[in-house]
């Protein structure tokens, strides 16, 4: 990860604080996490009983120049959404996209951009209160090998391949796995999932892990 992204994630660290997951009322989040990159290895997932497995080895890829993501496309689950920028909330946790009828995915702008070395993080709602389903309502259906395309402001596209999808208890959120240093461009898509809790929120987080595809890096928008 670049020194830029290391400093940015350090600034976000209060603890592994989870926001709500957009189920109405005042619970308006989308599975946001303020992580601590230097934290010890995460506790095993309460749902799987083990820590997430590492991604498979892939061919060497060339990282892209930093460029703001403007659109996210996940064909397998029918996602084609504009992307908004997310910073930090007043309490130090990562912001989440606004609750709207046409809700959008958001990118944590103080970390790597999609295609840069390190884990780019994008958040989305599973539900948006009275508006119904959120943009990431089917995120848990993604499987290894599925494709994720991020359109960039510089007229390029970064294509990623999913290598893992995990549902984890919020209390066991794998901060290091999500925000920790990696030596290649990767992407994290995060929302809520699992059973509802007593407050109308969700007990778990759904996390998709993807790596930049060598054959899809820096594709021109006009070629797609």
Describe this structure in words.
The strands form two sheets. Strands 3-4-5-6-9-10-8-7 form an eight-stranded mixed β-barrel. The chain has a two-stranded antiparallel ribbon with strand order 1-2. The protein has 224 residues and is mostly beta strands. It is globular. Helices cover 7% and strands 33% of the residues. The protein has a single domain, classed as Sortase, Chain: A, CATH 2.40.260.10. The model is unreliable at 1-20 and 22-54 (pLDDT under 50).
Compact overview of the structure:
This protein has helices spanning 3-12, 175-179; strands at residues 17-18, 33-34, 69-74, 79-86, 105-108, 118-123, 147-152, 156-169, 185-196, 202-212, 219-220.
Question: What are the salient characteristics of this protein?
Answer:
224 residues, mainly beta, Sortase, Chain: A, eight-stranded mixed beta barrel, 2 helices, 11 strands, 33% strand
- The CATH architecture comes to Beta Barrel
The averaged pLDDT comes out at: 77
Order of helices and strands: HEEEEEEEEHEEE
Q: Portion of residues in helices?
A: under 10%
Structural class: mainly beta
Strand order, sheet with most strands: 3-4-5-6-9-10-8-7
* CATH homologous superfamily identity: Sortase
Alpha-carbon Rg, integer = 16 Å
Q: What portion of residues belong to β-strands?
A: 25-35%
Distance between the ends: 29 Å
Biggest β-sheet: count, sense, barrel?
8 strands, mixed, barrel
Question: What overall geometry do the principal axes of the alpha carbons give?
Answer: globular
Oligomer: single chain
Tell me how many strands there are: 11
Might you state the CATH topology name?
Sortase, Chain: A
Uncertain runs: 1-20, 22-54
């Amino acid at each position: 990860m670049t020194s830029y992204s290391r400093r940015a994630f350090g600034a976000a660290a209060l603890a592994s604080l989870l926001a709500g997951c957009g189920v109405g009322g005042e619970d308006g989040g989308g599975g946001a996490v303020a992580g601590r990159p230097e934290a010890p290895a995460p506790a095993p997932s309460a749902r799987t009983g083990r820590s997430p497995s590492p991604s498979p080895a892939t061919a060497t890829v060339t990282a892209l120049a930093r460029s703001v993501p403007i659109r996210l496309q996940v064909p397998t689950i029918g996602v084609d959404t504009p992307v908004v920028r997310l910073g930090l909330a007043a309490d130090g946790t990562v912001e989440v996209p606004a609750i709207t009828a046409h809700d959008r995915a958001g990118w944590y702008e103080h970390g790597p951009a999609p295609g840069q070395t390190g884990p780019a993080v994008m958040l989305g709602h599973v539900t948006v209160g009275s508006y119904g389903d959120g943009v990431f309502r089917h995120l848990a259906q993604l499987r290894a090998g599925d494709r994720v395309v991020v359109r960039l402001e510089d007229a390029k596209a970064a294509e990623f391949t999913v290598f893992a999808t995990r549902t984890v208890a919020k209390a066991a959120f794998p901060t290091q796995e999500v925000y920790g240093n990696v030596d290649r461009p990767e992407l994290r898509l995060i929302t809520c999932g699992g059973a509802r809790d007593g407050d109308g929120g969700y007990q778990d987080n759904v996390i998709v892990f993807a790596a930049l595809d060598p054959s899809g890096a820096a594709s021109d928008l006009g070629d797609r």
